[in-house]
Input
Amino acid sequence: MANISDTIEEFILSVIGDDDSLQLSRNELANYFAVAPSQINYVLATRFNTDKGYIIESKRGGGGFITLIRICKTDDELSAILDEIEKLDGLTYQKASNIIDRLVRDEVIDEKQANIIKSAVGDKALNVPMNNNRLRKSVLSQILIGLIRR
Output
């Protein structure tokens, strides 16, 4: 049985479908799932962040309405991801995996390519005497540069 966060995520994904954005009422969603609004905040923050290809816009005093925006799949998006990565000191496997999954979802790469990239940035491939997170960042950055140049 799925936990409530998984259920809320699946619901939001089904509602947004192929659309580029979705406006939600945090309070209505919390009432629908019989959870506290903080649970909705948690799902949005962890499942719909920029790593996963979403931007959340929220207006103060707007009655708890938020707009969930799917980031477009373009070379500009790849450049933006690359810029995000370059600002980091290192890159965990989970964060790299989220970025790669986002590229699959946006049809920038296919599942087979994603699996190859995940293997290249995984701990087994990066078994060297240095900080794996920094090396992972470098490897994924170079892959993204290659995708932009293709």
The two ends are 42 Å apart (CA to CA). The chain has two domains: 4-70, 75-149. The helical segments are 4-16, 26-33, 37-47, 75-86, 93-105, 111-121, 132-149. The chain has a mean pLDDT of 82.
